[in-house]
Amino acid sequence: MTSRGRGNIGGNVGAIVRPEEPVARVAGLPDRLEVRARIGGRAERLRLAWGAGMGSAAERRVIRTRAAPERLTAATSRSHLDARTEEFLARLPLAARYACGSSIKFCQLAQGDADLYPRLSPVCEWDIAAGCAILAAAGGVASDPQGAPLRFGRADRKFLVPGFIAWGDPARAQLER
User: Fold this and answer.
1) Quick one: pLDDT band at residue 55, thresholds 50, 70, 90?
2) Domain of 89?
3) Which of these, 11, 169, 147, 164, lies nearest to 76 by C-alpha position?
4) What is the DSSP string of 51-97?
5) Closest by alpha carbon to 101, among 121, 75, 123?
6) CA pair distance 38, 26, nearest whole angstrom
7) What are phi and psi of 94, to 5 degrees?
8) pTM of the prediction?
9) Total domains present in the chain
10) Which of 20, 48, 65, 119 has the lowest tally of Cβ within 10 angstroms?
11) By C-alpha distance, which of 23, 27, 1, 4 is closest to 131?
């Protein structure tokens, strides 16, 4: 198994959350002027020029998740990798794993560069909503650790998600439960 670092800086630009699900949309790599966005029902990768809006992207392409290979590539947290997540990863056939920012991990899944992103420790909804929306538009899925759909807008839980597993290939998610 290999491990590689990703030196990029990334973050959510914004997400709109309807009751129970995120519907939009932008996560990016500001140091490279790249964004991934849920536009309508599809996920896109856009390259922007400084000061340009999304409508004048220099490059624009639809992105999709990939069918998971036998040995998986896992994206993990740089600062929130806990023992439960490590135990989960130890049970899987991994070819590689790397750490990067939260929104970027979702983008890596959405464009087929990674297969899963587990985080079994609590996280705020606003940290993952845009990534979940982009991943879903690209064909992937994020669920709670038991496989139930993630629910958003949970003021009763102080907008905390207790943990999740994001998969590029929903069929592989079913196999690993």
Assistant:
1) low
2) 2-175
3) 164
4) T--GGG-SEEEEE------SSEEEEEESS---HHHHHHHHTS-EEEE
5) 75
6) 7
7) -100, 135
8) 0.80
9) 1
10) 20
11) 27
Running DSSP on this structure, what letter comes out for residue 156? Answer: G
Distance (Å, whole) CA 11 – CA 147: 26
3-class secondary structure, 114:
coil
**CATH for 36:** 3.40.190.80
pLDDT tens-digit readout, 102-118: 678 988 999 999 999 99
Nearest to 133 by CA among 19, 34, 41, 28: 41
Structural contact between residues 81 and 87, judged by C-beta atoms closer than 8 angstroms: no
Q: In b/e form, how buried is each residue of 7-37, taking b as 16+ CB within 10 angstroms?
A: eeebebbebebeeeebebbbbbbeeebbbbb
